[in-house]
Amino acid sequence: MNNVISVRNLKKAFEEKILFEEVNLDIQHGERIGIVGANGTGKTSLANILTGYTDQDTGSIDVMGSVGYLQQSTEMNGADEQIAVEGEFLKRTKELGMLTDCTGSESYLSGGEKLKISLAKIWTSQPDILLLDEPTNHLDLKGIDWLISELSSFKGAVLIISHDRYFLDQTVDRILEIEEKQIHEYVGNYSDYRAEKKRRYDSKLHHFQVQENERKRIEKHLASLENWSEKAHNQSTKQEGKKEYYRMKAKKMDKQVKSTRKRLEKKLEESGIERPKDEKKVHFQFQEDVGHGKRIIEASDLAMKFSARTLFERTSFYIKKGERVGIIGENGSGKTTLLRLFVGEKNPSEGELWRSPSLSVGYLSQDVHDLPEEQNAIEALGYTTRDDVYQAKTILASMGLERTRQVIPIRMLSLGERTKIKLTGILMSKHDVLILDEPTNHLDLPSREAFEETIMQFSGTVIVVSHDYYFMDKICNRLIVHDEKRFRRVELRLSEYETKKKSTTDPTTEDQRMLIENSISAIISEISVLPPGDPKIKELDATLARLMKKKREI
After folding, report:
1. Would you say the C-alpha torsion 46, 51, 54, 58 has a positive or negative sign?
2. Which residues contact 238 (CB under 8 A, 6 or more apart)?
3. Could you identify which of 85, 365, 381, 487 might form a hypothetical disulfide with 315, taking C-beta atoms 3.0 to 4.6 angstroms apart as the criterion?
4. What is the pTM of this model?
5. 284: Cβ–Cβ under 8 A, 6 or more apart, which residues?
6. CA-based max dimension of the chain
7. Beta pairing class for 324-328 and 287-288
8. Separation between Cα atoms, residue 513 and residue 62, nearest integer Å
């Protein structure tokens, strides 16, 4: 085997919590591996150990070759350093769709642009192994497409820590899940993993139920034997002249009961099947207050400029009460800036932005480093009353942040766990508008899926910036799209918009559509001149239905 990473008997604990232990793992050249698991299970700790940023407690690790490591937070990737603009690096940033140059300090760049610079630096270094921790957080669709394409042609091993279902389905063929301090392996992409995990759960549950049915059957038999034994003992004291007979019969029953119980205990000990743990269900519940006019936000000739850089201009649109609006555009186009205009954190360079004065807005920023690191979760949220503290602890626990994790300093929590603290603050407030900037970043998969369901039930207004394709397509029923230096409103879902954009830019598809429309017109004309009842009408109707279906597909 051509192993590039070998792990033996690995163990890592954080404070008193064991993240994983007795981990044995071999990764071969050219493998494509996704690493998944709930927040706080140790995915990033494993990555830091494999790359030498953190030491393991016990065990050995052999890594053959150089590692290109993309860390989870853009703040950790050194994107603010002076960048040497070289040929290969510049080529990569252009491929990624950077909207500005990369010279000098990059402190003014968006999270997505910093991420693109980090990716360009990694590809320029030509590593033997890639280890990418949440690479699609902050990354626009163009960047994601670039990354999927580059990974397909990369010759070395690739390890991807991600909660992005679409991205994992496109890039990996093996899943490692960290669960219950162990690493469990699955063959295939994310969808294959979910199907196989359910199959394993159902199989374990079936065997457990068979074992429990057998236990109940034997226990019932034992109860009958014990009842007979008790009767035999009672009879032995009543039957004159036959006491010894009934006493022997009772002892025989006792012996049979003990023997049967011993066999049962041995059988259960040998099988040792425990009930499989149900996947943790995450529950979100928003408190909302809806009571205002139809239009809640209106932009008129809006523009935003920083020095010589124009993010957007000539922008006019509106947002209505109850709409779920997704904001899309390339990294650096001003999506987060637009959200900050909505909440009043910034003022536009030009134009006007009207907001309904009665709005109660809950704003979730994408920055998870703005929580006080020395405080615990409850202290950071600022709740003091008994009811509020109890509710906050309950919500945090429902999202998978255990009580023991709620009382430790935030600096000891994963980025996903920090996101859950910020979400708790939103959940406990009474809002009629939610403005969410990358809300699923760092969240584990069960939390993402539960959050989707909750947003679908929220009757207020939702405005979202997200690069999670599945999340955006499911949640948002209309879009505000950045195009040619301005934002415009589009009455489509993301998948519908992408399909329409592709059809208008693909001449082959447009030609097909025109041919079909011409054929439809010809058939309709032919039907119109045929006399009623003509048998040819039925045949033409069937052809017309097929063409109409094909047109809809295109």
Report:
1. positive
2. none
3. 487
4. 0.59
5. 395, 398, 399, 423, 427, 450, 451, 453, 454
6. 115
7. unpaired
8. 56
376-389: b (≥16 Cβ within 10 Å) or e: bbbebbebeeeeee
Under 8 Å between Cβ of 148 and 170: yes
357's CB contacts (< 8 A; 6+ apart) are none
Question: In this structure, are residues 358 and 364 in contact, taking their beta carbons and an 8 Å threshold?
Answer: no
Q: Provide the pLDDT for residue 28.
A: 92
Helix (H) or strand (E) holding 372: none
- Residue 32: band (very low, low, confident or very high) from pLDDT cuts 50, 70, 90: very high
Give per-residue pLDDT as tens, 366-416. Answer: 887 888 989 999 999 988 888 888 888 888 887 778 888 898 999 888 888
The DSSP letter of residue 276 is: P
Highest average pLDDT, of 113-122, 314-323, 418-427, comes from 314-323
Q: Which two tokens stand for residue 107?
A: 């402190």
Indicate the DSSP class of residue 551. Answer: H
- Residue 271: name the closest of 212, 348, 320 by CA: 212
Q: How far is CA 521 from the centre of its chain?
A: 47
pLDDT > 90: what percent of the chain?
A: 27
Asked if 426 and 453 touch (Cβ cutoff 8 Å), the reply is no
What is the distance between the alpha carbons of residues 317 and 489, in angstroms, rounded to a whole number? 6
Q: What is the rounded CA–CA span in Å between residue 403 and residue 397?
A: 7
- Tell me, what's the pLDDT at 102? 56
Distance CA 491, CA 480 (A): 9
Side chain identity at residue 252, one-letter code: K
Share of the chain above pLDDT 70, in %: 83
Q: Which two tokens stand for residue 452?
A: 């989707």
How remote is the C-alpha of 37 from its chain's centroid?
A: 10
Strand order in the sheet with 129-133: 67-70, 129-133, 157-161, 32-37, 174-179, 182-187
Token digits of residue 268: 């259960």
| The total number of residues written for the chain in this structure | 554
Single-letter residue type at 247 = R
Q: Which residues pair with 285 in a beta bridge?
A: none
Per DSSP, the chain holds a count of helices (H) and strands (E) of 17, 20
Q: Measure the N-to-C terminal CA separation of the chain; round to a whole number of Å.
A: 47
pLDDT higher than threshold 70 for residue 544: yes
